[in-house]
């Protein structure tokens, strides 16, 4: 006998902080699937099982988080959360998501109140933060490097995302061509601004990926000891 599946099927109908975060994450690492039998699914993918568990919780789901298998890759373990819902599929279409969206992605119309949550969700999916001290031949002391990066296969999406970031405290940012897509590179000061954009209003039990947050916090405490850090 099949196990009844719980799910907040109206989740993407109304904007909220949770919805904006999950939508941001889905924009980065989600997919919409219609199979040969006409069934509709949405799926989330991540190397961080904890992140999928948080998404599963806010969606009110009791679906199983499975492992992704790669036939031709030696990638580290990855996980997936797949949900059957024509209603969610259609709501994501309405918002602007599409199947096979990686190269054609556009930034959805996000209410200003929820921009920081969407950005944090996307960053937890397709963003990274880097902090280290690098030795340079022309310097006696190692040089600190603090950078944050958003990646995507769609340059247009990143152009629209960078425009949004500039409305919320980021002053510059560079879009670069990569081997398999594009990225936005933010340097020291803009990474500090990004930290405050993404985390200043996140409660202790909020939706965010702790390992990325901890790198930001370490960098800021080291480089800007007088800066306010949540």
Shape: globular
The whole-number mean of residue pLDDT values reads 89
Total number of beta strands = 8
Instruction: Trace the largest sheet across and list its strands.
Output: 1-2-4-3
The proportion of residues in beta strands is 15-25%
What number of structural domains do the residues give?
A: 2
The CATH architecture of the largest domain comes to: Roll
The CATH H-level homologous superfamily of the largest domain: Homing endonucleases
The CATH topology name of the largest domain reads Endonuclease I-creI
Gyration radius (Cα, Å) is 19 Å
Q: Share of helix among residues?
A: 25-40%
Which structural class do you get from the secondary structure elements? alpha+beta
Largest sheet descriptor: 4 strands, antiparallel
Helical region count? 7
From N to C, what is the helix and strand string? HEEHEEHHEEHEEHH
Uncertain runs: none
CATH secondary-structure class of the largest domain: Alpha Beta
- Terminal-residue CA separation: 48 Å
Q: Can you describe this structure?
A:
There is one protein chain. This protein has helices spanning about 15-30, 50-60, 85-95, 115-125, 155-165, 190-200, 210-225, and strands spanning about 30-35, 40-45, 65-70, 80-85, 125-135, 145-150, 175-180, 180-185. By secondary structure, the chain is α+β, with helices and mostly antiparallel strands. It has two domains: about 10-100, Endonuclease I-creI (Roll), CATH 3.10.28; about 120-225, Roll (Endonuclease I-creI), CATH 3.10.28. It has a four-stranded antiparallel sheet. It has a four-stranded antiparallel sheet with strand order 5-6-8-7. Helix 6 (about 190-200) packs across helix 7 (about 210-225). The radius of gyration is 19 Å and the shape is globular.
């Amino acid at each position: 006998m099949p196990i009844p599946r719980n799910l907040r099927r109206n989740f993407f109908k109304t904007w909220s902080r949770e919805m904006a975060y999950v939508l941001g994450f889905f924009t980065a690492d989600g997919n919409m699937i219609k199979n040969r039998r006409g069934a509709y699914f949405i799926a989330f993918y991540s190397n961080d099982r904890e992140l999928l568990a948080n998404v599963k919780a806010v969606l009110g789901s009791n679906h199983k988080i499975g492992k992704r298998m790669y036939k031709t890759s030696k990638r580290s373990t990855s996980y997936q959360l797949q949900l059957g819902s024509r209603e969610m599929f259609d709501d994501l279409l309405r918002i602007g998501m599409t199947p096979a969206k990686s190269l054609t992605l556009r930034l959805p119309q996000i209410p200003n109140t929820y921009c920081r949550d969407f950005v944090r969700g996307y960053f937890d999916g397709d963003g990274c933060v880097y902090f280290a001290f690098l030795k340079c031949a022309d310097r006696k002391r190692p040089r600190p490097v603090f950078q944050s990066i958003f990646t995507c296969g769609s340059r247009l999406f990143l152009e629209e995302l960078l425009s949004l970031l500039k409305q919320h405290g980021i002053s510059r940012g560079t879009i670069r061509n990569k081997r398999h897509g594009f990225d936005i590179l933010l340097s020291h000061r803009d990474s500090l601004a990004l930290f405050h954009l993404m985390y200043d209003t996140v409660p202790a039990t909020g939706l965010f990926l702790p390992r990325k947050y901890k790198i930001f916090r370490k960098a800021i405490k080291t480089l800007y000891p007088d800066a306010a850090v949540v």
